[in-house]
């Protein structure tokens, strides 16, 4: 993704608040609501019991008994985000309750119509995505700030750990997001000292994201992730288990296909790539640009604004400043290292876990979730977003490294 050079269209200063990006929380929804207005009690009642309803194979029958509720009582962005979170979790549970071999072709109207309406209002697709799973799905358990999820799925503590570690990666990125804004301002003002400091802060933030990601090992059991959690992140696009997509009854008579939740839907790395002028392969770029459709509209606009800003790389090259060049390369190295570590995580939690599951050695401890009839295999070599995962991850890691400035 090449950085743009059209400075005339870039209103400065680039203010985070214009794009619903928080100074404290970045792309995370600040202090999300945890309950909807009273008329939506039937949704909340089901959502709060999803792990049990799925494990006992009762979710689908409960959904069929659910009243079709109008979305007209929802007010403001926070209520819409919570409604989308609740309906997306219920939907993914409904679709995958019986595993890959027991999928449905139709999402019932009493779920599909309100989910579609809320999705249209937010500019999000009607499926569980990174926004729902992580950005809007956190709350404080107590005044000390201990975190928990708002809505859960089968997977117990491993599911909770997976969501909250991903949230910590998002939180670690916040100083880097602010550094981009400062750096773009500094480029326009030819303030090399501020630019150098901003690049140092960006590299440090990316390093802290890698440290946060390492906590995955402490909180997420690979066997539980692969055999229980992963299927609920699967979508109905590029998925052999649902080759025709899903009919949203009352919305469309034709099936629709949407990708599952994926780290590629996080705005952070898109913003970093655009700012650093990273150019990925045509195939990877096409997939990443499609994933932008799963981000909140204001966050997409933020990435577009960075794309239109003056090129950092060209500025560093033309400055001839060795300090700036070194600081730029540190950012590239940190981002490549983060992507390498992500490959390490995927190897452990998908490739090795898949091999163990195949061999029948995967053991689910402590009743962490329902044991599917057999381990999921439809997306064995793919990410939940539908990409060929190792080809994609290695490609974007390598093209990141190629973004280095050769001194």
UniProtKB/TrEMBL annotation:
Signal peptide: none annotated. SUPFAM superfamilies: Indolic compounds 2,3-dioxygenase-like (SSF140959). Keywords: Dioxygenase, Heme, Immunity, Iron, Metal-binding, Oxidoreductase, Tryptophan catabolism. Residues 363-384 are annotated as: Disordered. Heme b binds at residue 342. Gene3D superfamilies: 1.20.58.480. GO terms for biological process: 'de novo' NAD+ biosynthetic process from L-tryptophan; immune system process; L-tryptophan catabolic process to kynurenine. GO terms for molecular function: heme binding; indoleamine 2,3-dioxygenase activity; L-tryptophan 2,3-dioxygenase activity; metal ion binding. Pfam families: IDO. It comes from the Eukaryota. GO terms for cellular component: cytoplasm. Belongs to the indoleamine 2,3-dioxygenase family. This is I23O2 dioxygenase. It comes from Piaya cayana (Common squirrel cuckoo). The gene is Ido2.
């Amino acid at each position: 993704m090449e950085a743009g050079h059209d400075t005339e269209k870039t209103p400065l200063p680039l203010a985070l608040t214009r794009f619903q990006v928080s100074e404290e929380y970045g792309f995370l929804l600040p202090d999300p609501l945890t309950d909807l207005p009273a008329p939506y009690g039937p949704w909340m009642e089901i959502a709060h019991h999803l792990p049990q309803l799925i494990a006992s194979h009762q979710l689908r029958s409960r959904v069929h008994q659910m009243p079709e509720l109008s979305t007209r009582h929802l007010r403001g962005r926070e209520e819409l985000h919570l409604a989308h979170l609740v309906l997306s979790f219920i939907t993914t549970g409904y679709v995958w309750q019986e595993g890959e071999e027991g999928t449905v072709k139709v999402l019932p109207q009493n779920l599909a119509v309100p989910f579609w309406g809320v999705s249209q209002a937010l500019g999000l697709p009607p499926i569980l995505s990174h926004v729902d799973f992580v950005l809007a799905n956190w709350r404080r358990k107590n005044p000390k700030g201990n975190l928990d999820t708002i809505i859960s799925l089968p997977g117990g503590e491993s599911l909770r750990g997976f969501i909250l570690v991903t949230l910590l990666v998002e939180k670690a990125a916040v100083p880097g997001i602010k550094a981009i804004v400062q750096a773009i301002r500094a480029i326009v003002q030819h303030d090399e000292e501020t630019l150098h400091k901003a690049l140092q802060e960006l590299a440090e933030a990316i390093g802290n994201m890698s440290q946060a990601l390492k906590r995955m090992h402490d909180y997420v059991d690979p066997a539980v992730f692969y055999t229980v959690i992963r299927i609920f992140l699967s979508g109905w696009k590029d998925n052999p288990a649902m080759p025709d997509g899903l009919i949203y009854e009352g919305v469309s008579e034709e099936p629709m296909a949407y990708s599952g939740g994926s780290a590629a839907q996080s705005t952070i790395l898109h913003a970093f790539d655009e700012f650093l002028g990273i150019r990925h392969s045509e195939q990877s770029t096409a997939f990443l640009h499609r994933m932008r459709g799963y981000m909140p509209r204001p966050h997409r606009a933020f990435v577009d604004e960075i794309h239109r800003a003056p090129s950092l790389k060209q500025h560093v090259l033309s400055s001839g400043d060795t300090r700036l060049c070194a600081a730029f390369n540190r950012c590239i190295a940190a981002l490549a290292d983060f992507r390498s570590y992500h490959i390490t995580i995927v190897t452990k939690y998908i490739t090795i876990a898949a091999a163990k599951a195949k061999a029948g050695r995967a053991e689910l401890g402590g009743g962490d979730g329902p044991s599917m009839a057999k381990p999921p295999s439809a997306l064995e070599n793919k990410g939940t977003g539908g990409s060929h995962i190792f080809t994609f991850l290695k490609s974007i890691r390598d093209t990141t490294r190629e973004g280095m400035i050769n001194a």
